Amino acid sequence: MNHFRHTTLRLLLAGLALTAPLAGHAQQKPAKATKTSKAGSGLAVIKEADLKRDLFALADDKYRGREGGTLDELRASAWLAEQIRATGMEPAGDDGTYFQWFNLQRTRLTKTSTLRIGTRQLRPNHDAMVVAPTNASVNAPLVFVGLATPAELAKVDLKGKAVALQVSGAPTDGISYRRYLFGKLRDQAAELFKAGAVAVVFVSDDKAQAIYDHWSHIYERGRYGLPGDANTAVVNQPPVVWLPAEALSWAKQAGQQFSAELKVESFAYPSVNIVAKMPGTDVQLKNEYVLFSTHQDHDGARAPVAGDSIYNGADDNATGCAALLALMRAYKQEPARRSALFVFHGAEERGLLGSRYFSDKPTVPKESIVAVLNAEMMGRNAADSAALLGSTPPHLNSSDLVKTALAANQEGPKFKLDTEWDKATHPEGWYFRSDHLPYARLGIPAIMYTSLLHADYHTPKDEASRIDYGKLLRMTQWMYRTGWAVSNRTAPPAREPGFKLER
């Protein structure tokens, strides 16, 4: 996007956020509530009905899944900024607005790229997934090696050949099969290229097909990053192609030719963080911030699944967005000694891009952020269970903050806490997949509130109608109780000495 268009879009969205009429629910000042012993009076203004209303609005089809770097994400962000303004929170983004703009870099195959195996013309990233965008021109005989072992492959002349093989094996080190499979596609292809192959074609088995069906859409769009990231650099390397299981019958036919003409294009899209604050009441502590974190984007509109093409992202992560709006109303009802900073991160699904950008270029002094409380998927699974990530070594970077959060749970919702998902040995590596991570890497005390994954995760079935709103209410109250305690204590949460993540 050129400078003029980018500036015009910024002004348009800033105007929407700063000049649109007040939302109807925010025209009335919240009623005064009786102050509880360990939480502020704002606890009473966190309402299930408000959470449900806001979540249904944000997860509506009209925002088309809020894909990072699209107008859908920006339209949803403008709506969020208007809701934030209606709560009375002060802008804390760029130039007196609620917005902090950044570019995400996208590298993808051009629409003119072609791929053929034998007589079959395949549409790249539709009929066959190209694992990494690359400039490549290949015309080579295809040799099918099936389930050949490394020893068997060593006896095959692979030089100048396109090599087709079936996916095989299982993880032995505790990681999930999904992570194992993606790593295998990368590592085994690298070994075959060292042996002289000019292209690699993987064919799914039944187990890999389940991952192909659920996750292959991530390759449709190409790769994303911040400008300068290595993974978005335009490269010239042999192609790696991933086929569905149904392709096995024809991929193994002898005497076929592999042909690919792949071209890459790279360009920048605007994305945005939405930032607001509630100033603290203490003359000194108001210069410190408790940061409440979430993300507003999801996966957008894609190929239909059972007739539904919109990945609404109700749990992931409209729940977090609705929670932060409720927390803002609570802090407006009764401000704390420290300032509260609220950040909706853009383009999280593209690789934590918004939180990476904000943690590197915060709109408040970096050293003034004393804790990060991150909301990520808080409305599904068993009503009485949840998880607090960042509470188990090596992810624990503040025992002090975690003790406060655990005490807040006992004061309020009394969730049964699942600690398995926070362990370094958990196969999903869930700790590394949300917006608290860039802050934790800086040593800032950081935790994540979540109700964990479920079968509808990253599918069009993640709809507002499937959320447990009573549970979301209790999760939000838990976050508030924790934040309120941290916001009002004199000393900031102590940092864990020697904190170091496993990767």
Helices and strands in order, then pairings?
Layout: H1 3-19, H2 48-58, H3 71-87, E1 90-91, E2 99-109, E3 114-117, E4 120-122, E5 129-130, E6 136-146, H4 150-153, E7 162-166, H5 177-194, E8 199-203, H6 206-215, E9 223-225, E10 240-243, H7 248-251, E11 257-262, E12 264-278, E13 289-295, E14 300-305, E15 308-311, H8 314-333, E16 339-345, H9 353-360, E17 369-375, E18 385-389, H10 399-411, E19 416-417, H11 437-441, E20 446-450, H12 469-488
Parallel strand pairs: 6-7, 7-8, 8-10, 13-16, 13-17, 17-20, 18-19
Antiparallel strand pairs: 1-12, 2-9, 2-12, 3-4, 3-11, 5-10, 6-11, 12-16, 14-15, 18-20
Domain Peptidase M28: 273-479
Protein name: M20/M25/M40 family metallo-hydrolase
Pfam families: Peptidase_M28
Structure in words:
Keywords: Signal. It comes from Hymenobacter yonginensis. InterPro entries: M28_fam (IPR045175), PA_dom_sf (IPR046450), Peptidase_M28 (IPR007484). This is M20/M25/M40 family metallo-hydrolase. By secondary structure, the chain is an alpha/beta fold. It folds into 2 domains: 3-26 and 41-106 and 268-488, 3-Layer(aba) Sandwich (Aminopeptidase), CATH 3.40.630.10; 111-262, Glucose Oxidase, domain 1. Helices cover 29% and strands 23% of the residues. It has 12 helices and 20 strands. Strands 1, 2, 9, 12, 13, 16, 17, 18, 19 and 20 form a 10-stranded mixed β-sheet that branches. The longest helix has 20 residues, at 314-333. The radius of gyration is 24 Å and the shape is elongated. Mean pLDDT is 92; it is low at 1-5 and 16-37.
